[in-house]
Design brief:
Elements (H helix, E strand, L loop, with lengths): L6 E8 L7 H9 L3 E8 L13 H15 L6 E6 L2 H6 L1 H15 L2
Parallel strand pairs: 1-2, 2-3
């Protein structure tokens, strides 16, 4: 079934959300699918969780996970919205970006 998918895009609110479907994303890549991943905001901001998470470390983990899954540099995009609260106030911007992205890439 996955071999019939030629192009796919995964939209994530945070840079750790791809873990929900990392196995499927990897299987799609292995089947020859062009996989795109778009994240809107970083996960594990210092104030969001217990511990000393640093934004650069979190972003680096996202980059490494994308590489391991097989998503190329050109097919991963991060909007860099600063915090989860801004996702609610920037809903129209996110909706417009999502629509435009799908129009350009035709997943």
């Amino acid at each position: 079934m996955l071999s019939s998918v030629k192009k796919a895009v995964f939209f994530a609110a945070h840079t750790d959300d791809e873990m929900v479907c990392a196995g499927t994303l990897h299987r799609l890549v292995k089947a020859g699918c062009e996989v795109h991943v778009v994240s809107f905001s970083q996960a594990a901001a210092k104030d969001d969780r217990i511990g000393e998470f640093i934004s650069n470390e979190v972003f680096s983990e996202w980059e490494q996970s994308m590489m391991l899954i097989g998503v190329s540099d050109l097919q991963r995009h991060h909007l860099g919205l600063r915090d989860s609260a801004s996702l609610h106030t920037r809903g129209q911007k996110i909706a417009d970006y999502t629509f435009s992205y799908c129009e350009r890439h035709r997943p």
